[in-house]
Amino acid sequence: MNPILRTFGLAALGALVFIAIGLVVPAWFLFTMTKAVGFGLVALGLVGLLRGGLLSFGQGLYYCGGAYVSGLMANWAGVTDMIVLLSVGCIAGGLIAALVSPLVARYRGIFFAMLTMALSMVAYGVLTKIAAIGGSDGFNVPKPTLLGYHLAETGFGLYAIAVVIAALAAAVCRVHFDSGLGLIASAARENELRIEYLGASVFSVSTRSFILAGGLAGLGGTLNGVALGHVDPFFSYWTTSGEMVFIAILGGYASVTAVFGTALVTELVRSFSGQYFPESWQMLLGIFLLLVIVFLPRGVGSMWAKPAKNHAIRSIKEPAT
């Protein structure tokens, strides 16, 4: 069977299973899972960057950009259809990343991480000063619709959309990571100089991964902005970006589905610890992260994902001479 068709077939099957699960779980769990999908989408983009040896602490910029652009469209233009809002949010996140990429894609290591975080914090500072869009308080987002119909008050409709988007994004990323371009990105993590010798541009590879991560972040920001019914500058704050990095590291880059599971675990720990242990949920997540780093250094997803090739660069054939 064609690997691409198999990937999308498994994604469709998984989406149907989780939609069916949504019919029997309580409304609070639907909301938690919807938020987890939003964070998972951002973390999935971070996984793509990690595969290329890049770590961004500024994904909140694109997460916030998607949420703000789609939220303002809903408020000012009266567009509340989720398909339109998600598309606009994804495009907004990708475009912002495309504008930023010429500046950041040339850097590596701590310089890349700190520069992305600085840009995110600049956006946070600017948004808090613009009173026309709510300043530091942000603004409310109207209730969403789908093809002219209001989504159910229980949150099931929004949850079902989130599941479909997560399945589609995971399938697309899996196909991309296994493609020639995806293997080049992984090879760049191992040996950038070798990639340049083979005729590929590390700058172009980094730019593509960065734009993809920005689009996924904008998609996640739109979803969570609608789910919460409110958008504010904190979407761009460095701690928000840090949570997404935490989720991506927990999931690892061996699997495209693990980030959604770790995002759900993070949300559940935050919810229950906030209720029963108000000041200790960060400690519990920290202990969980330490255990994963010690016993599963490639992330939770390595438990079921196929072992990665030792050197992706070996998969790239020498150009004919």
Summarize the structure.
The chain is mainly alpha-helical. The chain has helices spanning 3-22, 27-51, 60-77, 82-104, 109-129, 156-178, 180-190, 192-197, 202-228, 238-251, 258-276, 281-295; strands at residues 139-140, 145-146, 149-150, 230-231.
Tell me about this structure.
Helix 3 runs antiparallel to helix 4 (82-104) and helix 3 crosses helix 9 (202-228). This protein has 321 residues and is mainly alpha-helical. A two-stranded antiparallel sheet has the order 1-4. It has a two-stranded antiparallel ribbon with strand order 2-3. The longest helix is centred in the last third of the chain and has 27 residues, at 202-228. Strand 2 (145-146) and strand 3 (149-150) form a beta hairpin. It is built from 12 helices and 4 strands; from the N terminus they run H-H-H-H-H-E-E-E-H-H-H-H-E-H-H-H. 69% of the residues lie in helices and 2% in strands.
Structure characteristics:
321 residues, two-stranded antiparallel ribbon, two-stranded antiparallel sheet, mainly alpha
How would the blueprint of this fold be written?
Elements: H1 3-22, H2 27-51, H3 60-77, H4 82-104, H5 109-129, E1 139-140, E2 145-146, E3 149-150, H6 156-178, H7 180-190, H8 192-197, H9 202-228, E4 230-231, H10 238-251, H11 258-276, H12 281-295
Antiparallel strand pairs: 1-4, 2-3
Helix pairs in contact: 1-6, 2-6, 2-9, 2-10, 2-11, 3-4, 3-9, 4-9, 7-9, 10-11, 11-12
Shape: globular
Oligomer: single chain
Describe the strand arrangement of the main beta sheet, using strand numbers: 1-4
Strand content: under 5%
| SSE-based structural type | mainly alpha
Low-pLDDT runs of 5+ residues are: 308-321
Total number of domains: 1
Order of helices and strands: HHHHHEEEHHHHEHHH
Distance between the termini: 34 Å
Spatial extent as radius of gyration: 19 Å
Mean pLDDT: 86
Largest sheet: 2 strands, antiparallel
Count of DSSP strands: 4
Helix amount, in percent? 55-70%
Helices, by number, come to 12
